[in-house]
Design goal:
By secondary structure, the chain is mainly alpha-helical. The chain has a single domain (2-139), classed as TIM Barrel. 39% of the residues lie in helices and 7% in strands. It is built from seven helices and four strands; from the N terminus they run H-H-E-H-E-H-E-E-H-H-H. It has helices at residues 2-7, 13-30, 47-55, 64-68, 103-108, 120-130, 136-139, and strands at residues 39-40, 60-61, 78-80, 94-96. The strands form two sheets. It has a two-stranded parallel sheet. Strands 3-4 form a two-stranded antiparallel ribbon. Helix 3 (47-55) crosses helix 6 (120-130). The chain is globular, with a radius of gyration of 17 Å. The protein starts with a helix and ends in an 11-residue tail after the last helix.
């Protein structure tokens, strides 16, 4: 993403969400029960990213890039990056993500590809079922194991 590419600063999405969710738990105790919602944003474009974000504690996930890939979206596969335009630090360009299907197919299926870009809701339900969860709130508390990248 631009922050990583231009500034050399980045934190992987799962790590960032997990750290914020942990801070939220501490704040919940310290504030006497005041709940703060965690919204995952950045590097979320496929169903696996959504499942990871929720499993790490996110209450909501920003999926603008995924939705922009709908053939019936206003941009028809084009998306402005999440970076704000600034005249002295070039960023914020229109990207062609390519249209992969209708909005309904992207959210609800059926999927005709296996890359995680379609049937986002079904994939989240499948990830929950695979790990033994049927409730989203319980899935947010799943024990996450980190394994080395291959």
């Amino acid at each position: 993403h631009t922050t990583r590419g231009v500034l050399g600063v980045a934190v992987p999405m799962a790590t960032a969400v997990a750290d914020v969710a942990e801070a939220r738990r501490d704040y919940l105790d310290e504030s006497g029960g005041r709940y703060v919602h965690v919204v995952a944003d950045g590097s979320v474009g496929r169903s696996g990213d959504i499942a990871k974000a929720v499993a790490c504690g996110a209450d909501a996930v920003m999926i603008g890039s995924a939705l922009a890939r709908a053939s019936d979206a206003p941009g028809a596969g084009h998306h402005w990056g999440s970076e704000a335009h600034h005249p002295e630090l070039p960023r914020g360009r229109r990207m062609n993500l390519g249209a992969v299907g209708t909005l309904e197919e992207i959210l609800l299926g059926p999927s005709h590809v296996s890359d995680g870009s379609m049937n986002l809701f079904g994939a989240l339900r499948r990830a929950m079922a695979t790990t033994g969860y049927s409730e989203l709130k319980k899935f947010q508390q799943v024990e996450v194991t980190v394994s080395p990248a291959h």
